[in-house]
Amino acid sequence: MNDAHRPNPDGPQLRTLLLTDLCDSTTLVERLGDGPAAGLFREHDRLVLQLQQRWRGRLIDRSDGLLLLFERPIDGLGFALDYARGLRELGASRKVELKARAGLHVGEVLTWRNSDEAVRVGAKPVEVEGLAKPMAGRLMATARPGQILLSAVAEPLAHRAARELGERGQQLLWKSHGRWRFKGVPEPQEIYEVGEPGIAPLRAPPNGPKAWRDIPLWRRPAALAAEIAVLAVIGTGIWFATRPQPAIAFNQRDWVVVGDLRNLTGQSVLDDSLEQAFRISLEQSRYVNVLSDLKARDTLDRMHRKPDTVLDRAIASEIALRDGARAVILPTVAEVGGRVRVSAEVIDPHTQTTVYAESADGVGAASALASIDEVTGALRGKLGEALKNIEKDSEPLPKVATGNLDALRAYALGSKAYAHRQFDEALQYFQRAVQIDSNFALAHMGVMRVYVSNADTDAARPYLEKAQQLRDHLTPREALYLDAWAAEFGPQPSLRAPPKWKLLAGVYPDYFAGRYQYAWSEFLANRFDSALAATTAATAPQEPLRNVAFELAGRVHLSQERYAKAIESFKQAEASGHYPPNRRHAAALAAMRRFDEANRMLDALSADGDIGSANLTVQFERIAVALDQDDLTRARELSRKAAEAARDAGLLVRHPMRFTDLLVRSVSGQNPPSASEIEQFAQGVLNDAVKPGSADQDDLSAIALAAVRLAQRQGERGVAERLLPRVAGLVDVSGNGQSRKLLRIAYAEQARLGGDPQRAVRELRALLDGSEPFQARVALRDALLAAGRAEEAASENRWIADHRGRAYAEPIGGQVYLAMNVADAARARREAPRTAALIQVLAPVAAAG
């Protein structure tokens, strides 16, 4: 051998070896190109040099990856961790992913220096050999991209010294990947992974031809197949010997359909009463959801069957399959051996086979209520509900309903009539139930619900108060429902009721009333995102009133200018509610400027233009669309007729309709209202708001503030000065958030009219959080114009023109602002293309009010 190439080995030395390999380097060059790739590799070399100096490493070879020697394992680990982090940063700057495999091992190696002549002709300055080198190489080759693997020798040494890495060392993740076999290494080796959270893969390496997992013989595929075959034979024999009862994969909050009760006793009083009792008892569960009878009858209609079709095994199973219910429950009451037996079967709707059956016996018809509690408790346990929850969420029927079967039957008949919106009939049944048992809390709530549905809050209040006295006689769910309604009837309902509805929705997430009422309160507050989230949850297929939720979802989408989604939601509401397009649907079309379609829809709802009590509210949209089209003559005619027709309507129709007529007269210039006329109207609204027991203070205060706003728009600052103290007192009492904002708008307008537009701008900008009333933007535009800030005013004018959906959908004060908002949006759109002209046109208006 030539002496120039003869090695001069030193003695064996214990060293830490780190081998790394940059993944997909060839692909990287192809992707970046030669020039950028060369620049990247130069930065890579600088990174390696910095880390080599920081961690006291000795670079041996870099021809195919890196081979470094370290005195201590912790230095090699520190280099590997920093190298992985450095590659991430290099790649991020060039929008490429850079990762390296790394293997770390501790063992004896031989090192020697090559002669200078050998180095000059291409040899490495230092050579390293020994079994430790291929061992580190196997670890590196086995690793996934970005993975650092350690041998069983290196891991404990590095782990013990990890605290030297500081806080980062405490956050390192260490994971064993078990015993592996490497090609050429006789004994299996334990390998470990270490890395930082979010960087290390922390997954077992893949098996390959040079490294594979050391699996015991009994766990290898062939052996496992044989074992499984033996176990299958044994298991099949055991299953046939101890065949279990069929079961349903029932999970928490799954739905059940309760079929019609089969009464085999011949006592008709038990027909409706026990069926209602069975539902009340089962609905106490927070684990099982019961499909309402109204929803079941609605599904019958979609099945083209008569509403009074008996829900037997077959029909109830079909309903369950259509509505996504997991099980059917068929209750039965019969006389067996002189005793009254209540039983119930749980049916699998797919096969119509009985899965479970429970029964309980008692003496006399009065014992049936206790038997129902026993049966429903057993069924809840069979369906998977925990015993402690059954005990917690179960009250005896005589306590949470009534022990009188006649009262229970009257309540059941009232519930059915109420579900079909036969309110007069429902009221008679509920009142009959109260007469039979004056402590029947659910019946008192039934009367209250009928009166609330008829907007007769004065008549509803005594029954609400009586139900509150009997709160302990309600199920937990109905008690929360009562608390929410009590907040609606109490002081500051807009502040106190929404948390109650939210609590009800949280405890009983599949109970429609909680979800919908909370969504409605959020919509009234212009908090559209949270309103939409709650509304979406109320549109589940099992909800009997999902059409109402779909309609609210459409109104929320319209408020956010999501017109396609709004139209889709309105169509879903119409399909599930079986009614034609309504005025909300027409408003969405008008917001999209599809006026012909909107007018046809509104005319159809108005019975070819006739204005009567049945379609009076449709006139709000008809007037708004006329203003939107700048058809002031039509708007004036519609508003005049509507105001006359609304004279005998309720407060929340009569006052908004009267105000709309005043507004149209003002906008059109045809007989504009005088200051005294506006003030007289506002005083009448305020007088109604302060009447004892008024439940409409929030809406009435918003209507009064609309009158103040109209006076200010006509430059009547004195009217506002006289009205605002009284309105402010009413708003302070009600605490309504939107009324407070409207009041602040009125005060800002007073500042503008008083010659201080800069103050008005400051006060109005403070309102802009996404939930501000539409008129806040209009007032801000006018204040900016008055302050000479034309460019900002033009920006606000564009916002007004672009938010047509918000103008049509804003619900404040029973939509008293609808016509005003739409007129402002239409005017802003017409004038937006001519910014310079816009300032000239609007400046005189703003100066005059």
Textual characterization of the structure:
The chain is of the alpha+beta class. Among the domains are: 211 residues, 2-Layer Sandwich (Alpha-Beta Plaits); 141 residues, ABC-type transport auxiliary lipoprotein component (Rossmann fold); 176 residues, Serine Threonine Protein Phosphatase 5, Tetratricopeptide repeat, CATH 1.25.40. The protein contains 40 helices and 16 strands. A hairpin with a 6-residue loop joins β8 and β9. The longest helix has 21 residues. It is flat, with a radius of gyration of 39 Å. It starts with 7 loop residues before the first strand and ends with a helix.
Essential attributes:
single chain; 849 residues; Rossmann fold; Alpha-Beta Plaits
Concise summary:
By secondary structure, this protein is an alpha+beta fold. The protein is 59% helix and 12% strand.
Structural class: alpha+beta
CATH superfamily of the domain at 3-213: Nucleotide cyclase, GGDEF domain
CATH topology of the domain at 3-213: Alpha-Beta Plaits
Looking at the structure, what is the overall shape? flat
Q: Which residues form runs of ≥5 with pLDDT under 50?
A: 1-7
Topology (SSEs and partners):
Elements: E1 8-9, E2 13-22, H1 25-32, H2 34-54, E3 58-61, E4 66-70, H3 73-93, E5 100-113, H4 116-120, E6 126-129, H5 132-142, E7 148-151, H6 154-160, H7 167-171, E8 173-182, E9 189-195, E10 211-213, H8 221-241, E11 254-258, E12 262-263, H9 270-282, E13 288-290, H10 293-302, H11 313-323, E14 327-336, E15 339-348, E16 353-362, H12 368-382, H13 387-392, H14 397-400, H15 405-419, H16 423-436, H17 441-453, H18 457-469, H19 476-489, H20 493-507, H21 512-524, H22 528-537, H23 546-559, H24 563-577, H25 583-591, H26 595-605, H27 618-628, H28 632-645, H29 651-668, H30 675-689, H31 697-713, H32 717-734, H33 737-753, H34 757-765, H35 774-786, H36 790-802, H37 804-809, H38 812-815, H39 818-831, H40 835-848
Parallel strand pairs: 5-7, 11-13, 11-14, 12-14
Antiparallel strand pairs: 1-5, 2-4, 2-5, 3-4, 5-6, 7-9, 8-9, 8-10, 14-15, 15-16
Helix pairs in contact: 1-2, 2-3, 9-12, 9-15, 15-16, 15-17, 16-17, 17-18, 18-19, 19-20, 20-21, 21-22, 21-23, 22-23, 23-24, 23-25, 24-25, 25-26, 25-27, 26-27, 27-28, 27-39, 28-29, 29-30, 29-31, 29-39, 30-31, 30-32, 31-32, 31-33, 32-33, 33-34, 33-35, 34-35, 35-36, 35-40, 36-39
